[in-house]
Amino acid sequence: MRHESSSYPLWLRCWHWSNALLFVTLLVTGLSMHYAQIGPRPLGFRSDVLIHNTAGILLTLFYGLFLYGNLRLGNGRYYRIVPGDFEPGLIRQIRYYLWGIFVRSPHPYPHSEERKFNPLQKMFYLVVMYLLFPVMTVTGWALLFPYRLPAEILGVPGIGLWALGHTYIGFLLSLFMVVHIYLGTTGPTLGTLFRFMLYSHAEPEPASTAHGPGSAGRPGSHDEVPVTVPKEHT
To answer: What pLDDT shows up at residue 205?
Structure first.
């Protein structure tokens, strides 16, 4: 029997995957612009700029949907810092990622309708979605109108300073994306959590089992634990 999760409604799943597609587009075209040759559309630097700018504008609109969903649709409650998130939450979660996950220890903060993020995820998402992403958006829009930027800021050319800030923030967000994808593989199977984010339900997998260290999947092992729901989420 499928269990639908109200913490991943349709609008949030559509935003998540659209956001991912646009960000990858921005990453690829942003890197390409550093090496592309000036040339006519649809090839070369001008093409990269057009695609990059279009994806950036769309990403800004989707960010507006994210903010609306957090403010008006209840999704913001998952980002609120609650007692225990810093101490002992962060310590427990870091210990789990560094050691517990490799020895099949139980997750200290399993996903539930009341808690979508563990304490470490919550801190990272707050920094990414409410600090780094807005800075990247503002610097990106500023670069769309370079003639309005100050010619010089603290002895540095204005457009160069904005471009460097935009590039470095994009690099940090790219690192976050790599970690985000890795954590998506830490469920009972490599694809469980990705299916969960696609369909918002956890399907029982009666044939799958998680094995403790040293069991190596042997039938009858005492470390054998049936897997039915995700233990982590992306």
So the answer is: 42
How far apart CA 97 and CA 124 sit, in angstroms, is 14
The encoded tokens of residue 23 equal: 């960000």
d(CA 54, CA 25): 10
Q: Contact at 8 Å (CB) between 50 and 26?
A: no
Residue 140 · residue 165 · CB < 8 Å? no
CA-wise closest residue to 106 among 122, 121, 118: 118
Q: Does residue 67 fall inside a structural domain?
A: yes
In a domain, 52, yes or no: yes
pLDDT tens, position by position, 55-95: 999 999 999 999 999 999 989 999 999 889 998 999 999 99
Spatial distance between the Cα atoms of 137 and 135, rounded to a whole number of angstroms: 5
Q: 19: domain range?
A: 1-79
Residue 9, domain member (yes or no): yes
Q: What SS3 string covers 138-205?
A: HHHHHHHCHHHCCCEECCEEHHHHHHHHHHHHHHHHHHHHHHHHHHCCCCCCCCHHHHHHHHCEECCC
Predicted TM-score (pTM) of this structure: 0.76
| pLDDT one-digit tens code per residue, 12-69 | 999 999 999 999 999 999 988 877 666 555 557 788 889 999 999 999 999 999 999 9
